[in-house]
Here is the input.
Amino acid sequence: MRAMRIEGVPASAGYAEGPLFDLDRPPAVYAGKATATEEKTSLEAAIGTAVSRLAAMAEAADSDAAGILEFHIAMLEDDALSGPAFASIASGQTADVAWREALDAEIGGYEASDQDYFRARATDLRDIRDQVLRALTEDGDSTAPTGAILCGEDIAPTRFLETDWSHGGGIALKAGSTASHVAMLARSRGVPMVVGLREPLADLAGMALLDAEHGSIVLAPSPAEIGAFRQSSASFVARQGVVRRFLARPAVTKAGTAVRVQVNIADPSDVDGIDIATCDGVGLMRTEFLFGKNLPDEETQYRAYRKVLEWAGEKPVTIRTVDAGGDKPVPGFTVEEGNPFLGLRGIRLSLARLDIFRVQIRALLRASPHGNLRVMFPMIAMADEYERAAALFGEEQAVLAARGVAQKMPPLGIMVEVPSVAIAPEAFAGVAFFSIGSNDLTQYVMAAARDNAAVAHLNSVRHPAVLRLIGSVTAFGRENGIPVSLCGDAGGDPAAIPSLLEAGLRDLSVAPAQLAMAKAAISDVSV
Here is the structure.
């Protein structure tokens, strides 16, 4: 086979050299049972095995990954999903065929939807389907060899999480998205990943070279190509070493302009691996991690918030009220909608469920005396939403004070992620601060779903329309004494940082793994 280079889109920077592994290979053949009762028992056992495997992975995973796995477990335990398969078994079908046909029918319905949200859920269903099929066949050959480059149409989060990445390896996908769950997991773990390959990987045999810094894979490489690849890989590692030296330094541009760099966290345990001296505080603490299988009580939330505030000391911690909905369903809280990204999510959902929102407000007020807390509301579109939320804080503060409970009112700000706010920020002149959510803002401005590979080229924070809005919000904040920061993925993207600083931003919040890289990128900007 002659050497072949296929271009794609970098999703997680890095280099990998290793054998190809076909993610789409069919599972081993299932051995049918003698009776329908045995087939039913076989499928029940396989579902139980899949649930146990997912639960074990969830226990060892971080909050983001655990949330994905718990969603899969909940679907597997839903009788509505498995019912049609058991009905087929009762009619004489084998367990594997019954399960595959039932799930494929469900997957087909999701894929046919005109809503990106439901099409994205098809990936979850395929993962669930394959987990059970593997349990049915006990397919031991499904494990990729150490250091392999996993190739295929797409990859399930569970396949990523059960792969041992400690000895290298990478991912190359025909579909996929830079904003997918797996892409975020890959970036946090430093696993090289390329998505949107422009040609199919016809022959998945032999060694390959994955360049996830620039976005390509080379099949059947020549000795010269291997040599050039290893030089590029070594250069990348060396640059990463240089970048790490910026971690302990303040972020400053070439011209000496200081830039605050804070971190985004999703779970209180995230701060255990971060030296507070390396960052300027927490620019975004997500609270969805608390809203998993059960709605959290006030004490659970209070302890979680207090832990992070005490870790940060005098440095600010910006906690976002629960941003459920959209691509973050929460059992017992969110609702199923035809277009959830434009539906009852974020502050809209909180204001619709005051019984849940008031619990979170009280926990935040009680935690506030333990550090430098700031609270922000997600998905604000109208000034009335902010005013209602702020009034609820006032009401709950009065209740706590009357009971003699220690509390403190934190500064209240908003996420700028809905275009109506970015276009007319003057309606929000009374807020304490703005935090630009670049992921959703870009998605809404460009009308391009952030998790859809087919329109990934449109979803760029560097588009002039998006940057113009960011610049106008930053200018409004500067003119009116309202601090402005950015907490979306763009803040940690070295390619986007120069444009963000040119737009006037001087406060970025990034994933902990991107701290050093962001500081290094800032030092290279002339602003």
Summary: The chain has three domains: 4-25+142-234, 36-136, 251-524. The longest helix spans residues 36-60. The domain at 4-25+142-234 is CATH 3.50.30.10 (Glucose Oxidase; domain 1).
